[in-house]
């Protein structure tokens, strides 16, 4: 059900229009002045606004301009309702952000057609918004695992790094013997392992943490506000959760482990040094027997 605002200082006109709109199955809101209309639009997810030009507090075209300045997450289709029929008035209303313009007196038949046109535009806007959100989501996430891709996880790290008061723990995770899994069982099984590992890591982290696919079988975890010792505890929790999990893929039941390297951004001069330190710690964990967590020295 679309929410429609009727803004008009004429009570009789407002009530007649509201009754007609209710019969069309719209949820109707009323305002007798521009300021009240603006508050209703800000707070009630209004889809269509029928706004009289001349109102106390804030006139219709200025209200229209203020609506366009709002940072709403949906589009408000604005129809200016007025007795002004001069072409310059129409142009002014459209310039201020109105979508349509209807001159009094008008028939309900004409208004009904204009409302249905508004619905078509709103549906198109919603489809465009959904398509954009889907495209954006695909752009920032790894297509296989659903976690952040490499570019996005690095962007998150750079954004946090710009806040010098934020301590940042880093974990780089590598799946042990992943090449052997792919060679023995095939890449489809390997893909399922990547997805399951991503899920376990994500479920182990806090809502404020970030995880992204850093390489083929490598993951980068960002832990805002945690020092290196606190980050180590999180890393160990991840390692144990994966070690204790049985991976059921088709008819297979696999036991899989990971190796982890931990560092902290504050210990190093820049992000690259912190990442390299975590990577070296990971290398040492792999070299010393795997299924280990090592803190960067």
From TrEMBL:
Its EC number is 2.7.7.65. CDD domains: GGDEF, REC_OmpR. Residues 166-297 form the GGDEF domain. One of its GO terms (biological process) is negative regulation of bacterial-type flagellum-dependent cell motility. Keywords: Phosphoprotein. It catalyses: 2 GTP = 3',3'-c-di-GMP + 2 diphosphate. Pfam families: GGDEF (PF00990), Response_reg (PF00072). GO terms for molecular function: diguanylate cyclase activity. It is an enzyme of class 2 (transferase). Gene3D superfamilies: 3.30.70.270, 3.40.50.2300. GO terms for cellular component: plasma membrane. It comes from the Bacteria. Residues 3-119 form the Response regulatory domain. The modification 4-aspartylphosphate is found at residue 52. SMART domains: GGDEF, REC. This is diguanylate cyclase. The lineage of its organism: Bacteria, Pseudomonadati, Deferribacterota, Deferribacteres, Deferribacterales.
